[in-house]
Amino acid sequence: MRARTLIPAAVTALVLALAGCGTDGGSAAGASAGPEQEASSPSAPASQAGETGGGTAEVPEALEFTATTLDGEPFDARTLAGKPVVLWFWAPWCPKCKAQAEETARVAAAHRGEVGVVGVAGLDGTEAMKRFVDETGTGEFTHLSDENGEVWKRFEVTEQSRYVILDASGETVYDGVLPGGDGLDEKVAGLAG
Question: Could you say which residues form the signal peptide (predicted)?
Fold first, then answer.
């Protein structure tokens, strides 16, 4: 009897996760958000993550989490406190995510030091995630391996190719899909500097 209840719930969750690749919706408000790092590897160590000005910025609740980078290094989102943050939730097999990669990397480079940009990979294994970063040329900012979906759950993300953008105080100012990354630079530029 219990299996009859669990199986439909599991199927529903899987369908929602997979259907996200075909969704173009977005909203101006939503869940809290998280991290960024600037380094030359897909998962730079947390010590290189978006360092705050004097290290005295108040840490908003949205950045009170830790994770693991694609290289297995610890990541502490608190290092991003005091500046805007872009969290890009992606899956390695998602064509919409691949289409967003170039613009996301360009925006991360253009706003390095001003805005934290962090990729949050999920819905696959770490090796596939590393291949995605290599193939898309997005290794200049940090990517987290969220195989267990903890960061996705924290920000209530139910579909890949989704951006969660936080202002410097940790408030969510955008939560949605930007096809091809269109509009990301405008949203980030309005928060930077």
Answer: 1-19
